[in-house]
Amino acid sequence: MFPEFRDLISSLKGHDHHFTRLFDKHNELDQKIKNMESHIEPGTPVEIETLKKEKLALKDQIYHHLVSLKKA
Description:
This protein is an all-alpha fold. It has helices at 6-12, 17-37, 45-71. Helix content is 76%, strand content 0%.
């Protein structure tokens, strides 16, 4: 995710609590979606779609956070 921000992401993880929370939640949702799509966890197509939208919203928040820090 966002290879152009790889160094910034590495420096933020564990030091910026807001960023770490967003990043961890995004990864949790990603894994949950994969598990549902692989039928490891139960999930309806509607539930999966809802989680994908939530994950995308988190990705947008992460991106905007990274851009705002890069400009600073």
